[in-house]
């Protein structure tokens, strides 16, 4: 599986553009991918999004950076040898949507099917199963990535956001949610909450 985080110029994959892609091979977290790119001609820019990712206007228009098309091809090549190419992301529809639309823009074959795994949903269901109160916002789930990280005993994601950093935080949180274990040395000092610890199951013969 592939944990992906993209930083973009906004929230609409048809109007806005990816500015960086960070990814981690879930089963082998030391295998990572990170690229930055220049935005495509005519891409719209939301200043709120730019404050989140910290890129300047000069950086996203830098002609010395690779194009989005080049970066997408490099990302797909990095993924090509994986047996399981299922994408994992916090709000999977967002990252999945930007990657898919970027492939369509350049007529690049989309190799990830139509299913993805959502970290938000995984955390939501874990909280439900344990009868832990789910944070709400405007009548719906208020589980942001930072809420997931807090639930998993991890610190907030540093700001401004970095796509590879985000993918690593998401990988760590997903391993804690699913397996009750830490995978990155930099997070071992952050204790895994007792409610995520896995107990050994009795073997039936």
Question: What descriptors fit this protein?
Answer:
single chain, 205 residues, alpha/beta, Nucleotidyltransferase, domain 5, five-stranded mixed β-sheet, two-stranded antiparallel ribbon, 7 strands, disordered C terminus
Question: What can you see in these coordinates?
Answer:
This protein is of the alpha/beta class and 205 residues long. It has a single domain (2-196), classed as Ribonuclease H-like superfamily/Ribonuclease H (Nucleotidyltransferase, domain 5). It is built from 7 helices and 7 strands. The chain has helices spanning 47-53, 57-60, 68-79, 92-105, 119-129, 145-151, 163-179; strands at residues 2-8, 18-25, 28-36, 87-89, 116-118, 136-137, 140-141. A 5-stranded mixed beta sheet has the order 3-2-1-4-5, with helices on both faces. A two-stranded antiparallel ribbon has the order 6-7. Helix 4 (92-105) links the parallel strand 4 and strand 5 (116-118).
């Amino acid at each position: 599986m592939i944990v992906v985080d993209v930083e973009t110029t906004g929230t609409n994959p048809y109007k806005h553009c990816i500015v960086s892609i960070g990814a981690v091979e879930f089963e082998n977290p030391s295998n990572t991918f990170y690229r930055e790119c220049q935005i495509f001609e005519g891409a719209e820019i939301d200043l709120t999004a730019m404050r989140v990712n910290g890129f300047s206007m000069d950086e996203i228009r830098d002609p010395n950076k690779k194009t989005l098309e080049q970066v997408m091809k490099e990302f797909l090549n990095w993924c090509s040898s994986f047996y399981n190419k299922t994408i994992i992301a916090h709000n999977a529809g967002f990252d999945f949507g930007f990657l898919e639309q970027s492939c369509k823009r350049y007529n690049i074959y989309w190799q990830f099917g139509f299913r993805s795994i959502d970290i938000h949903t995984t955390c939501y269901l874990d909280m439900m199963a344990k009868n832990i109160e789910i944070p709400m916002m405007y009548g719906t789930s208020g589980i942001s990535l930072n809420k997931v990280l807090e639930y998993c005993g991890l610190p907030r994601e540093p700001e401004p956001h970095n796509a590879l950093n985000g993918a690593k935080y998401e990988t760590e949180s997903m391993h804690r949610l699913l397996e009750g274990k830490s995978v990155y040395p930099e997070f071992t000092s952050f204790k895994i909450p007792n409610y995520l610890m896995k107990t050994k199951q009795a073997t039936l013969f």
